[in-house]
Each structure stands twice: as C-alpha cells, then as structure tokens.
C-alpha cells in the first residue's frame, strides 16, 4: 500500500467525481491515514468543471494540491486531463476516460475542443492510462458507474484492498446501485494497463 499521495480528481458535473473521491477518502481513513479533501464545483449543475483534491499520508497539513505536486490526475472526461495537467508532478500519472463532454462554448463554435488531448500528453512523455470507461460502464448496465471503473484502476495503483472498497460500496450506496458499482470496481481492478496503448485517443 502506497503510504502517501496527492490525487486530483477532475471531470464535469454529474460524472461522479465527488462520489469517487469520497469513497477513496473513506477507505483511506479506515486504514488509519490522515486524509484531507477539498472540492471545487464550478458550474457543476451546467456541466461545468468539477475537481476534488485528496491528500493522504501519516500527517497532512493542507487539503490543497499545489501545481506540480499531484501524483495522480484521475480524469472522467478526456479534455479535463489537459486542463489540469500543470498540477501533475514530473513522475506522476494520468488515469483518464476517453469520454467526451463538449461544453456549451464548443457547441456554439466559440471554442475548439482539444480532440487529441491525451495524445498530446503521451507525446510529451507523460504516463497516461486511457480507456473508454463510459462504454465499459454502459456494457455493465449503467454509464454512471464509469467513475468506479476509474477508481478501481487508481486503487489498484495505490495498493488499496478491493475488498475494503467493495464493503464501503455496500455500506454507502443505495441497494439498487450496489451491484453495478461493484461490477464496475471489479472491472477497474482487472484492467490491464498495457491495453491502453491500443485504444484510439
């Protein structure tokens, strides 16, 4: 189990960014770590950017992750990884869904969507795990469970017990949502990072 880390969760409103970070924080607290978490909602209700910062270790003094210090950026929407990349440390890793949610200004032609955002990061030598978590979650029965797939990948990276997260899902999630989220978490733990290189980004 990794003893400390700075993790930046990013996405847009409605993707379960905060739910995933809350579940991770609950697991880390149960393991005895000092955990600090902060949320920035932006215009989440309109599909705006949402970020959550989670820091854990033996002792954490501030909930805020400074630029260039994040060990992981977990992005639920692929362009958000590019927006927040300045927070990643040199040896850090991006875990990103390939899912696209185009903001209003892109749809009306006032901004251009960064189609090749993840390719650009990889070309710069940044370690990126990328997959279509949304598509995988839909195949499991609920596209909103994509956040648990990504959380499973991150938790495996951290060395966090799958059984602990499964127990917390059963404890905190509504009964009708438990099965699909458990399956999604398991999908994340099973995910083979080497497959990401074959995906179109």
The total tally of domains equals 1
Order of helices and strands: EHEEEHEHHEHHHH
Shape: globular
CATH class: Alpha Beta
What average pLDDT do the residues reach? 91
The total count of helices amounts to 8
Please mark out the parts with pLDDT under 50 across 5 or more consecutive residues, or reply none.
Answer: 196-201
Main structural class: alpha/beta
Query: Roughly how much helix do the residues carry, as a percent range?
Result: 25-40%
**CATH architecture descriptor text:** 3-Layer(aba) Sandwich
CATH topology, by name, is Pyruvate-ferredoxin Oxidoreductase, domain 3
End-to-end distance? 31 Å
Nearest-angstrom radius of gyration?
Answer: 16 Å
Q: What is the topology, as strand order, of the major beta sheet? A: 2-3-1-4-5-6
GO molecular function: oxidoreductase activity, acting on the aldehyde or oxo group of donors
Protein name: Indolepyruvate ferredoxin oxidoreductase beta subunit
Organism: Proteiniclasticum ruminis
Keywords: Oxidoreductase, Pyruvate
How would you concisely characterize the structure shown here?
Keywords: Oxidoreductase, Pyruvate. The chain has 201 residues and is α/β, with parallel strands linked by helices.
């Amino acid at each position: 189990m990794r003893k400390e880390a700075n993790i930046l969760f990013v996405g847009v409103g409605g993707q379960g960014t905060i739910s995933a970070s809350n579940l991770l924080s609950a697991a880390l607290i149960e393991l005895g770590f000092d955990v600090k978490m902060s949320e920035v909602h932006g215009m989440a209700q309109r599909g705006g950017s949402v970020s959550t910062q989670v820091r854990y270790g033996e002792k954490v003094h501030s909930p805020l992750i400074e630029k260039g210090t994040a060990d992981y950026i977990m992005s639920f929407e692929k362009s958000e990884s590019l927006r927040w990349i300045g927070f990643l440390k040199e040896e850090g890793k991006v875990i990103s869904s390939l899912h696209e949610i185009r903001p209003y200004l892109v749809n009306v032609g006032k901004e251009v969507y960064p189609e090749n955002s993840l390719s650009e990061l990889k070309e710069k030598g940044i370690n990126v795990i990328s997959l279509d978590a949304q598509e995988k979650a839909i195949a499991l029965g609920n596209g909103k469970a994509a956040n648990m797939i990504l959380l499973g990948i991150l938790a495996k990276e951290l060395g966090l017990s799958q059984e602990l997260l499964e127990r917390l899902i059963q404890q905190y999630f509504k009964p009708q949502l438990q099965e699909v989220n458990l399956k999604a978490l398991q999908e994340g733990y099973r995910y083979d990072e080497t497959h990401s290189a074959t995906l179109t980004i």
